[in-house]
Input
Amino acid sequence: MTGDAGHEGGRKFRAVTALQRRVVNPLTRRLPGQILLETTGRVSGQPRRTPVGGRREGQHFWLVSEYGTRSQYVRNIQADPRVRVRLSGRWHTGTAHLLHDDDPIARLATLPRGNSTVVRAVGTQLLTIRVDLDDD
Output
């Protein structure tokens, strides 16, 4: 089979990503305390801002993508790993790394509980991402 129909969770993926794209992301992007990950669109070249959950630890920002390389922002990172992260209202530049060998379930246990619970509940292809931040 081709497309999502051949993948376990294809229907779930389409339903959740449609809800995120049309409802959740536009609303949460506007919240002042929301963490945003800004990538460069791999086709458009335009900035793309995605609300994410994660945690800063020193010069690293950690997050887990619920759909791995199926997520648009992950595909953008693959094309250009230079990103920006908005933490506490301040933008930080950095380089994102996809960590296929990291245990995303164990990583979620170290990240904020609310977001981690949602990622585990809706995710079908968990992938750890580390952003190495350039600034203090």
In short: Residues 5 and 11 are 7 Å apart (CA to CA). The first helix runs from residue 10 to 28.
